[in-house]
Amino acid sequence: MTTDATRATNPTSQADASPTTQADASPTAQADASPAANPTSQADASPSGAGGADAASRTVAEPAPEPAGPPLVPAGPRSATFWAWTGLGLVIVLGLAALTRYLEQNVPAFAEGTAVEDVAAAIEYPVYAILLGLLGNAAVTLLGLRDRIAAAFRTEFFIKTGLVLLGASINLAVIASAAGPAIAQAILLISGVFLFTWWLAGRFGLDDKLRALLASAVSICGVSAAIAAAGAVRARREQLAYAASLVIVFALPSIFVLPWLADLLGLSPAVAGAWIGGNIDTTAAVTAAGALAGEEALQIASVVKVTQNALMGVVAVALTAYFALRVERRADAARPGLGELWRRFPKFVLGFVAASVIATWYLDAAGADGKATIAIVNDLRVWFLILAFVSIGLEVRVAALREAGWRPVAVFASATVFNLLLALGLASLLFRSFAT
Description:
This protein has helices at residues 11-16, 27-30, 80-110, 117-122, 125-142, 155-166, 172-176, 179-203, 208-221, 223-233, 237-264, 269-279, 283-293, 295-310, 312-327, 338-344, 348-366, 368-395, 398-404, 407-430.
């Protein structure tokens, strides 16, 4: 997927809970104020996002008492000034998104015949969107506008909508064509890489929420998996941006390195495709690498990646339960029930699954005409994800990224190497006699 992003007690997290970012807690934003959009701690002691009226000192696992004082931002109608600033912010977000789309579609053509032709063709829209968002962030901060227009950075809404639409591209009938080996590889690979990354990140002393994002991103499907994990564990935007950046940085060289290694090792097209699909963390990059390896390799790579993507919801459910029952549960707190798990569960995952089921049925019923409709849905998904990545760039606070330091990079790099080796072994075992 295209391409899908550190929470520690620091000045940045305090700023997120301060009046300067009250837009995130406003009635306008509360509709999308999910766990990923609001910090759950200074350490883990900020509003939970359930209705926007939780006391900042309450932990996530506690039942929701009546607030002792007024909410951070009083409910009621907004002033004309507020809506004017929000409108300006929305214009900035849409403008940067349009520029992102323009660059994504035209840079490869501009670079044709040059030394950077292959690199330009491989760069995906998250790269442009995040970079332009960061440039916009610097500009509006220097102009003193950032906090006034922050209500327009609807990252949560854009991300959730984009991921629901992503489900339409996962055709369950396609997965069935290589169901046995693809599902076996996906389950074994995701489990092995996730657990290894989680363990290694713990050894490096990373925050549990960042551990979850990195482990999900490297083991499943990159940025989209990190987004789903962020919703389940209530990670901060800076953590999501950091994880997304690592995915992009590592995915780009993989497009060229993995097909070359597959040829060097003399892998069959099916094994090469399964290895590529199980390693590269974004769907578009998998497609690019698979195309370099050959048509048969591309088909297998796509099925393997789609199968891993389909397991994203299962991981989100598991993370929701684990963080509610273990990580964020106080020793003296009552064991959270099903209601608490349901409240924390990222509901958009249900939309993701429903879109996949509906798209599978529709493609079977409509045939070739259905593919054109799904293509429109996929294009709309790209627009929403571009808006999300632009908003992430606009919201990033550099202090939090600096504080993360080198340790997350070391963890992600080590997990990528482990993923390469494990996926190669599984692909060689499960796809050695496979024929399309």
